[in-house]
Amino acid sequence: MDRPLDHYWAKRLADLQRALEANNFEAYAAADPAAAHRIVMDEIVPQCGARSIGWGGSMTVVGTGLYQTVKARTDIEMVDTLDKQVSSEEFLERRRRSLLVDLFITGTNAVTEDGQLVNLDMFGNRVAALTFGPKHVVVIVGRNKIVPSIDEAMFRVKNIAAPANAMRLDKKTPCVKTSYCEECKSPDRICNTWTITEKSYPKGRVKVVLVNQDLGL
Ligand code: SF4
User: Fold this and answer.
1) Does the domain at residues 4-146+192-211 carry the CATH identifier 3.40.50?
2) What residues line ligand 1, using a CB cutoff of 6 Å?
3) How crowded is the C-beta side of 154, counted as CA atoms within 13 Å?
4) Per-residue confidence at 123, pLDDT binned at 50, 70, 90?
5) CA of 154 to the centre of ligand 1 (A)
6) pTM tops 0.90, yes or no
């Protein structure tokens, strides 16, 4: 068999797709980031009739090329929450406005095998949008985010995703030096609000696109 690892993960992703659907998420499987891009732009955006789109901070989303595509569309208003060149007031204002868009596109810190999304935010705009506000939410998920349980999701977030994100963002936190969460009290702490999304409500509001590649942190 060619590429046995891809076959292995395709089966795992198919199982996870069914688990997510049982939890009322709309779920899709994509072979790679280009396929995820097609699913979002050719299926989900037209079906939603989205006229405005906002973003959760996510290396996964940037890796799909969706940000550049939406930015070039003149028929869609983009609330550009990924632009780092704005003032701190504008930075926060855009995150507030992104809670009322038609479609919010983000990643997730972890997804459990039984189809629950686990996230930990610094500002809280991403988990707020995932929970309520935008009419529709798309969550792009690389296969490296799959974990067996909520406990292992929380371990993954605190000891892989958060330290790596603190490094990416040049934060002055102890995990940048040790690679492990030290439960810091740093003003730069990026770990402030947890969410566990057990099910999508209303049914289908949250759409999960599973990608058969490692993506994001
Ligand atoms: S709580 Fe502090 S030390 Fe722990 S992962 Fe978050 S930022 Fe790093």
Assistant:
1) yes
2) 158, 162-163, 166, 173-175, 181-184, 186, 189-191
3) 6
4) very high
5) 12
6) yes
Counted residue by residue, the chain has a size of 217
Residue 34 is predicted with a pLDDT of 97
Listed in sequence order, the residues at least 6 apart from 128 whose beta carbon sits closer than 8 Å to its beta carbon are 99
Pair 127, 119: CB distance under 8 Å:
yes
- Does residue 1 carry a pLDDT above 90? no
Q: How far is the CA of 110 from the centre of ligand 1 (A)?
A: 17
Query: How many whole angstroms from 132 Cα to the centroid of ligand 1?
Result: 26
Q: What's residue 6's pLDDT?
A: 87
Rounded distance from Cα 173 to ligand 1 centre (Å):
6
- In this predicted structure, what is the pLDDT of residue 57? 85
Q: Which of 173, 185, 194, 217 to mutate to test the pocket of ligand 1 (most atoms within 8 A of CB)?
A: 173
Question: Which residue's CA is the closest to the ligand 1 atom numbered 6?
Answer: 191
Select the more confidently predicted residue: 24 or 84: 24
User: Would you list the domain boundaries of the chain?
Assistant: 4-146+192-211
In contact, 33 and 213? CB cutoff 8 Å: yes
